[in-house]
């Protein structure tokens, strides 16, 4: 697709069948799809969808059986904080996690599953922690990491890669995401200094500074 069209949820189910996947089609997943599509520019929505399918195929390849509905909701909603431009007081991941937890509760997914959705989104940029959480959190992060940096991409067949990329092309994601993250570093710098967005700020945003963890320790107001 060119990115101008808005693919329907039924088209996503068709892509899933072409990948030998049974994408959950509950009301929660349908509504998460609709919200992600409504709030995201095409390049970001396509990233969300590719992440869903990469994650599902990696789980299948690795013989993992996560809660498919929970993971689908989490991945579909994982970048709403990015779509909204972050916030002055919270990392964009937390913005999205808060939205998604409220969404899960409103869709009667239960407190435990709603908290797992929150964890999945809050930790999706911190793979070194996410992969040691529950299988659902790990599967959510693995699909997103595959589309962001190619982690696990070599495990997918050429045919499956082609199906996903034809249905949801990248639309210049590297440059678009770089611009988006730099905007957050510029507009909400205090939410970025201890995480990966600081790398974008340091490289691309004039005047951006990242404090050293070493300085933080040694400037602490203690005598020793």
Walkthrough of the structure:
- The chain is mostly helical.
- It contains 13 helices and no strands.
- The chain has helices spanning 9-18, 27-39, 42-61, 68-77, 80-83, 92-106, 111-122, 127-130, 135-149, 158-167, 173-187, 197-204, 213-218.
- Helix 3 crosses helix 9 (135-149), helix 3 packs antiparallel against helix 10 and helix 7 (111-122) runs parallel beside helix 9.
Beta-strand content estimate: under 5%
CA(first)-CA(last) distance? 61 Å
**Quaternary organisation of the protein chains:** single chain
- What is the overall silhouette? globular
Low-confidence stretches: none
Overall strand count = 0
Order of helices and strands: HHHHHHHHHHHHH
Structural class: mainly alpha
Overall average residue pLDDT = 96
Please work out how many helical segments DSSP would assign. Answer: 13
Alpha-carbon Rg, integer = 18 Å
Query: Mind summarizing the main beta sheet?
Result: none
Helix content: 55-70%
């Amino acid at each position: 697709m060119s990115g101008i069209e808005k693919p329907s949820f039924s088209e996503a189910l068709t892509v899933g069948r072409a990948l030998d996947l049974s994408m959950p089609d509950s009301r929660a997943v349908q509504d998460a799809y609709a919200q992600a599509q409504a709030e995201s520019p095409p390049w970001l929505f396509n990233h969300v969808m590719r992440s869903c399918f990469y994650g599902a195929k990696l789980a299948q390849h690795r013989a993992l059986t996560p809660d498919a509905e929970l993971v689908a909701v989490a991945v579909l909603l994982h970048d709403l904080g990015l779509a909204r431009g972050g916030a002055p007081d919270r990392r964009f991941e937390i913005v999205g996690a808060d939205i998604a937890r409220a969404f899960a509760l409103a869709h009667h997914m239960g407190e435990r599953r709603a908290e797992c959705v929150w964890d999945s989104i809050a930790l999706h940029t911190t793979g070194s922690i996410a992969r040691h959480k529950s299988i659902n959190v790990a599967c959510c992060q693995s699909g997103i990491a595959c589309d962001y940096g190619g982690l696990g991409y070599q495990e997918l067949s050429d045919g499956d890669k082609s199906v996903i990329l034809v249905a949801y092309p990248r639309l210049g994601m590297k440059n678009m995401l770089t611009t988006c993250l730099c905007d957050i570093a510029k507009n909400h710098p205090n939410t970025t200094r201890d995480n990966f967005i600081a790398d974008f700020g340091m490289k691309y945003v004039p005047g951006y500074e990242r404090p050293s963890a070493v300085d933080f320790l040694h400037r602490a107001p203690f005598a020793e």
